[in-house]
Amino acid sequence: MRALRGLTSDPCPTLDALVAEHGPTFIVRGGPMTMAIVGDPAHLAPLLATTTDAFRWGHVFNVLGFIVGPGSMIVSDGDDHKRRRGATQPAFARRRLDAWIPIIVSETDRLVDETLKRGADAFDLYPVGRTFVRRVVVRVLFGDGLGDRADELGAVLEPAMTYGVQPALRQLPHPLPFTRRARAREALRGADSIIYEEIDRRRRASRSDDDASDVLDAMLAAEGGALSTSEIRDQTITLIAAGYDTTSSGLAWTLLRAAGTPDVWKALRAEADRVLGHTPTAQLDGETVRGLSYADAVVRESLRLHPPGVFSPRQAQRDLMLGDFAIKKGTMILWSPYVAGRLADLWDDPLEFRPARFAEPDTRQQAAINGAWMPYGRGPRACIGFALAQMELTLALARLAQRVDIALVRAEVPKPIGMIVNRPDCGVVVRVGARQS
Ligand code: HEM
After folding, report:
1. CA-based, 20 to 30 A from 251: which of 124, 131, 161, 372?
2. Nearest-CA residue for atom 26 of ligand 1
């Protein structure tokens, strides 16, 4: 029972201790509950490749349903999942991703300008990063059509998103008003009215797929009207919710690690000067992102050590074997990119932050990357926003290194907190100034 409590309240140190004792895959029992923790790549490969009959995702443990709605891909399985995901996937096609590059860079510039106005005092960059992520996702989803309502949508959603990062036990259905759940429900009503109004406006404007550059248009244009209006609303909230805390956490850890290693910041700056240079933001394109290979490696190395999702759930639908482990029907399976990313027999000096292992991998590190780097998951349930998130973090990091000097106020790496999404316990406290050299 202690292990279960530790996994829900303080997952990273609990996992470290359990993995040291039992290895990367093990079973935990507490009262009537059995959980399988899976971190061995040999077990992860078949687990993540199989979705349909052996495992469920949209199961009773999935506390997200309340926020994202019953028509969301994230709480669906089988054919419903395939249809909902399939109708949303084209929204993330390469040509749309490329069109979002100037949005991301201009939002980073906005963050830098707002930050420089604060002067020399230390402040927490984590909430500033959340605002950046929220602004990007709203523009990517809705284009600039929402205008001033973009910030309003982000602001009304904040209580619902904050609810999403509460420990799982506190999210169980609750009859009392004035709780976080009630506040989240209220917030969602506000967001729904903005989203439904926008869907309605676009349906009346009857645009074609050729016009579609934002995600909402792409979902509306999905072949044969594959998604109903309420399903489009549910995917919209899902994309905001699934991308919000994860990307904010990824940005926080990446900045902590990069700013805490002056040589890395210097190398990021040299690359950004070469690739971004003085090119007008509107002209930045896919070539730019491909040129930022060192920034991409820094992000990947940060996500290896600090995957925002420490683990992700499945439920076994029948008795099955995972390697030598017998998993009973009904068992909750938590697969963990955190465990896989730190295995000492795969990664050289696994606790060291070393972007070179991604920038110039030798054969051993390449094998580890292929088999055990999975902060975005793998297979048919892998993160649908992977390319967007990776590009967003890479561009933001490169632009920040190009424009600002940054110093961490505390030298030691903060503790990770949060069960569903993991973030640094005391934020990212920094001093930021305009670049001096
Ligand atoms: C650093 C940022 C991110 C990380 C680390 C991350 C991580 C993940 C992981 C691990 C999964 C798969 C869980 C599983 O298989 O059990 C997932 C699924 C998902 N992610 Fe992300 N994510 C990030 C950003 C985003 C963004 C920006 C979006 C949307 C714009 C997004 C949307 C989704 C959705 C909708 C799913 C569910 C897919 C499905 O059920 O088929 N994520 N993410």
Report:
1. 372
2. 243
Task: Name the closest-CA residue to atom 19, ligand 1.
Answer: 383
pLDDT tens-digit profile of 98-136? 999 999 999 999 999 999 998 889 999 999 999 999 999
Neighbours of 80 (CB within 10 A): 16
What does the domain layout of the chain look like in residue ranges? 2-434
Domain 2-434 has CATH 1.20.120.530: no
CA of 384 to the centre of ligand 1 (A): 6
Nearest alpha-carbon partner for 391 in 381, 399, 403? 399
195 in Cβ contact with 239 (< 8 Å): no
Any ligand 1 atom below 6 A from CB of 377: yes
Pairing between β-strand 25-30 and β-strand 332-335 as defined by DSSP bridges = unpaired
Please tell me the pTM assigned to this model.
Answer: 0.94
Cα 31 to middle of ligand 1, angstroms: 31
Q: By mean pLDDT, which of 12-26, 150-164, 226-240, 356-370 is the weakest?
A: 150-164
Q: 138 CB under 6 A from ligand 1?
A: no
